[in-house]
């Protein structure tokens, strides 16, 4: 891309950003209900959402307003006020946190109600500034703590809404109370603000840390779930193929070195459709789960087992020689057959399998897979319930079949 194009694009996106920034300075736009976007969840999906958010903010609010009480109280001692303001301060410091939580939890959408409570907090902050006649230290401490809350809870938009709420309530306080600008803070007031300065950021930091830890755990869980097949809890095809590519590259790098062999095993349940048709899909699912369990119990941790499709399973036998892989695969097929007369957990299903050791002549990982597929189909053709290992003869047969297909 030319630098001219880049500059033009940057200019365009910059131009688009300006209205958004200006909207943050416009209280009418900030408080106007945002038009619904196509990817918004339906309103009914929001009902009951945000309980954890409410509880988290409750804890912070109880600590913050409890300590903040002493900041404002010190301001009131320095510049005395009438008892209704003291009563309002006691309410805000010690009753409001519980009332706000109760109110939010009883709302249809607790998350939204809690955001509203945060704006009310910011409004109180502005009002206390006016009530303290602009006493500088407590005003700055309270406003910065409330802003920290709002930006942490709802980003710049909630922060700016809070700023406007603070300004409005400051002006209201100015009009209602006999406001005189007295910014000097005496030493007692400054000392009373210190606990808030020291403790509140700690509480907010701890709460943010706990939340990010939980988020990291969630994203790890999601990652694991996205790699798994839901029914069998084996790797799903997409993830397993990525492992196959890695293994293929590893084998290519180590080609010729002993102890770095790997084999690919493709297993398919025979006449599985009959199980579904005769006993129903639930029994079919049970057979798939039982067979996965058999694979898991007989293979090593190191082997990478995946569900390739409906009743097809794939295994990368890592660091396994062709001779060992042959023995192991044959044992699996025998065990599946023996279950017919044993616990019958496979409902009489037998297994056909194709086995292909890695060889350096393979150009790409899918050649390995194609060969395994071909070997497995040869096992089906041989009458099922058996293992076919890839060898030069099969290679020639496949090459001939491919040439015939091309000629036809
Ligand atoms: N119960 C269940 N059945 C599935 C699932 N996925 C695929 N199937 C079924 O597996 C069956 C596979 O049938 P076919 O491909 O004809 O294979 P087959 O009956 O095993 O025949 P051969 O492979 O030739 O021995 C189909 O009926 C699919 O509907 C699943 O998750 N659960």
UniProtKB/TrEMBL annotation:
Residue ranges crossing the lipid bilayer per the database entry: 58-77, 125-146, 158-175, 187-204
Enzyme category, top tier: transferase
Domain GGDEF, residue spans: 260-392
UniProt-listed Enzyme Commission number(s): 2.7.7.65
Superkingdom of the organism of origin: Bacteria
Keyword field: Membrane, Transmembrane, Transmembrane helix
UniProt cross-references to Pfam families, sorted A to Z: GGDEF (PF00990), MASE2 (PF05230)
PANTHER family: DIGUANYLATE CYCLASE DGCC-RELATED, REGULATORY COMPONENTS OF SENSORY TRANSDUCTION SYSTEM
Name of the molecule in the record: diguanylate cyclase
Species assigned in the record: Herbaspirillum robiniae
């Amino acid at each position: 891309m030319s630098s001219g194009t880049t500059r033009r694009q940057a200019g365009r996106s910059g131009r688009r950003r300006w209205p958004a920034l200006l909207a943050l300075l416009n209280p009418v736009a900030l408080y106007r209900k945002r038009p619904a976007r196509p990817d918004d969840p339906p309103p009914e999906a929001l009902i009951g959402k945000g309980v954890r958010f409410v509880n988290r903010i409750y804890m912070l609010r109880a600590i913050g307003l409890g300590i903040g009480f002493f900041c404002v109280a010190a301001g009131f001692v320095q510049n005395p006020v009438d008892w209704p303001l003291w009563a309002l301060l006691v309410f805000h410091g010690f009753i409001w946190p519980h009332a706000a939580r109760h109110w939010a939890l009883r709302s249809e959408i607790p998350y939204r109600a809690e955001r509203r409570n945060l704006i009310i907090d910011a409004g109180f902050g502005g009002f206390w500034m006016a009530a303290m006649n602009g006493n500088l230290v407590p005003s700055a401490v309270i406003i910065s703590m409330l802003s920290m809350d709002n930006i942490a809870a709802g980003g710049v938009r909630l922060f700016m809404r809070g700023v406007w709420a603070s300004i409005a309530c400051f002006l209201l306080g100015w009009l209602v109370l006999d406001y005189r600008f007295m910014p000097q803070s005496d030493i007692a007031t400054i000392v009373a603000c210190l606990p808030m300065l020291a403790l509140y950021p700690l509480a907010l930091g701890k709460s943010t840390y706990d939340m990010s830890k939980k988020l990291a755990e969630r994203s790890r869980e999601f990652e694991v779930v996205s790699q798994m097949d839901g029914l069998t809890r084996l790797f799903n095809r997409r993830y397993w193929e990525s492992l196959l590519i890695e293994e293929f590259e590893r084998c290519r790098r180590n080609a010729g070195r002993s102890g770095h062999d790997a084999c690919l095993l493709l297993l398919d349940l025979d006449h599985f459709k009959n199980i579904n048709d005769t006993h129903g899909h639930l029994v079919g699912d049970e057979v798939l789960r039982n067979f996965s369990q058999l694979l898991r119990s007989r293979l090593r941790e190191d082997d990478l087992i995946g569900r390739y499709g409906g009743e097809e399973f794939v295994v990368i036998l890592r660091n396994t020689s062709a001779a060992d892989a042959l023995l192991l695969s044959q044992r699996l097929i025998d065990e599946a057959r023996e279950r017919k007369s044993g616990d019958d957990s496979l409902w009489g299903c037998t297994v056909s399998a194709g086995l292909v050791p890695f060889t350096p002549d393979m150009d790409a990982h899918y050649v390995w897979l194609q060969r395994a597929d071909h070997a497995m189909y040869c096992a089906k053709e041989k009458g099922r319930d058996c293992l076919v290992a890839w060898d030069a003869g099969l290679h020639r047969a496949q090459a001939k079949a491919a040439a015939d297909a091309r000629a036809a």
